[in-house]
Structures are given as structure tokens and as C-alpha cells.
Amino acid sequence: MIVQMKPQATKEQFKRISDFLVSKGFGIKDASSDTNIVFGIIGDTKSLNPTDLEAFEGVFQVTRVSTPYKLASRSFKREDTIIKVRENIFIGGDQFVVMAGPCSIESFENTDEIAKAVKASGATILRGGAFKPRTSPYAFQGMGLEGLKIMREVADKYDLAVVSEIMSEDMIEAFEPYVDIYQLGARNMQNFHLLKQLGARTKKPILLKRGLSATIEEWLMSAEYIMASGNENVILCERGIRTFEKYTRNTLDISAVLAIKELSHLPVIIDPSHAAGKYSMIEKLSMASYAVGADGLIVEVHPDPEHAMSDGAQSLKLEKFDHMMKELNKLSDVLDKKIK
After folding, report:
1. What is the pLDDT of residue 297?
2. What's the rounded Cα separation, in Å, for the pair 273 and 279?
């Protein structure tokens, strides 16, 4: 439920109704502005009658939210959420952010070469896997903590932020000094314990990838777990879903961007690399993502994809990434979002 107080309502009137709700076991999420007192009621509100709450002095209107995700809902917060990553990096609003880097961190020299190139081309966030969840237990599993240290050192050298995937809650403290954004992979989208732990134990942004077979509502419910646990800095990432099609690695659901923009205030980016699985498709899918209104991209880049430790087939060479960024900048001349 969402409660809107009258314009002349006092802080004492707000406190009276909020204390009442807390005494009944509900949580309160304040979304007030300078001119309006508005708050959400968190919990199972089936037993609450909106008209009963309107009996409290100062209450203007009580609205029952029909969606099961309240904090992530556009009904709860009408304006778009803009997430601050660093002083000069924001995700959402009128900016289009590009995250780029290798699938897996392989060495300092390799990471340094990639970071230097993607920074020069216009990326502001370095992506890379230090701990890699792989389908096969025999595939390369990443460099671990050493990979995180390499990312942080290289990113600082080129003034880039860092995003990397976390596998479990026992890694949170280890990740905290090295990443600016925690990435939750598709396989962990419904790891509810991990979602709650990240929500409670860090205020850094969480990049939440959509599960391989997840509906949009399930995806938003996963975001709700993080937000209800205390961290509202959630970035949604559409990375392709599993369908009957076998030509591409997954099927990019580009309409999900439009759906999220209607249903939620959270920013949403696209991962064309995992969606297509083919480097030849990434540039056009990226341009389509920009045009449809996504807030950014996360793209795999490698100087020598043929010898990459993982996902070489879906990694852009440095010169191809630079060409893609130039094409995106051409689009920026006619669209409201500017590449940052």
C-alpha cells in the first residue's frame, strides 16, 4: 500500500500513523519529497483496509499496490531512479553508460591493455570475471581474489569503476574493497539468501541479471528482495532468455526494456554478448538497445578472442569495440540519452 498525506499534514500526524503500522508488524518506506509526504507499507497488507487508515488525521489517500513488488514498482516511485556509482558515473536518467572488459580476468597485462582501450573508446566501467560460474566443472573458473586485485589496480590507473560477479554471501567482505558494483549472474537471480545478504550488508549498487527462464515479474521480485533488505541501488540487466532457438546463445528480449520502464523506476541495461553469443551481432544489438531506451550496456571485449580463457566467440576485438562506440555516438546526436 502507498499512503499519501495531505499537503498540510504535520510530522506528528505522520508519526502517529507510522507508529501504528509498525506496531502491527509492518515496515515503513518513506518516499517523501519537499512538498509531499508519501510512504509505502511493507509487508502482507491483505488484512489492512485502506479506508481504516484514511481515518487517521492528515491522511489524504491510501492506494493498494496490485503488484507483488512494491519498492521496485513505478506505482511506489514515479520518477526514474538514478544510481550513483562514483562522483562522475551515474546509471539512469539521460545518460547511457557502457561497461566493457574481458569475460574472465586472465592477467595484469591483458586487463591493462583492455582497460586502456575501452577507456579511450568511451567506456566508464571495467567489467571482468574473477570468480566464474561455469556450466562445466572442468572449465576455467577464474583467478579469484587475485583477479579482483588486478581489476582494481588497473581500473584506478585509467579512472574506471569496477563491476564483477559475486558467487556467494561469504565473498561480500572480500569483494567490498575492490568493486564499485556487485554483479549477480543469471544463475543466482533467485538465490534469495544471497539477495537478502547483499541488500543488508552493502550499499554499493547491485547489477541484477535476469535469469535464463525468468519472467519479468520474477526478475522484479528478485530486485524487491535486495531493496526490502536495505539496498535500493539495483540495476537490472537483460542478458537474453532461453527459448527454443539454438542459432544464438540466448534470445535477447529487447521488449523487456520497455516493460521495465513501464513497471519499475529502476534503471535497466542490456548484455548483448551473452544474449547473442556471437561477436558479429553485438554492435547492432547494442545500437538497438540504445534506441529502445536502455540505460547502458555491458559488453565483453578481448584483444585476442581466439585465445581467450572463456567466451571468445562473443567478445569484441578492441578495434571492433571502438567502431561500435563511434556508431553509438552517432545515435546520440538524435537521442536524448548521451553516452557517459
Report:
1. 98
2. 7
Range of the domain at 103: 83-339
Residues in CB range of 143: below 8 A, 6 or more apart: 104, 105, 106, 130, 150
Q: What is the pLDDT of residues 108-134, one digit of tens each?
A: 999 999 999 999 999 999 999 998 766
95-101 and 59-63 as β-strands: parallel, antiparallel, unpaired?
A: unpaired
* pTM for the structure as a whole: 0.86
Q: Is residue 71 part of a domain?
A: no
CATH number at residue 6: 3.30.70.1140
145 Cβ contact list (under 8 Å, min separation 6): 130, 174
- What does residue 69 show for φ and ψ, rounded to 5 degrees? -95, 115
Which one, of 113, 170, 103, 153, lies nearest residue 133 by Cα?
103
Do 93 and 240 belong to one domain? Answer: yes
Examine the domain organization and report whether 43 and 136 are in the same domain: no
Q: Is residue 68 part of a domain?
A: no
Residues 194 and 137 reside in one and the same domain: yes
| Amino acid identity at 165 | E
Q: How many separate domains does the chain show?
A: 2
Please say whether the dihedral angle defined by the alpha carbons of residues 236, 327, 331 and 87, taken in this order, is positive or negative. positive
Q: Which amino acid is at 291?
A: A
Q: What is the mean pLDDT of the chain?
A: 93
Q: Is residue 77 part of a domain?
A: no
Grid coordinates representing 333?
A: 546526436
Query: Both ends of the chain: CA-CA distance in Å?
Result: 36
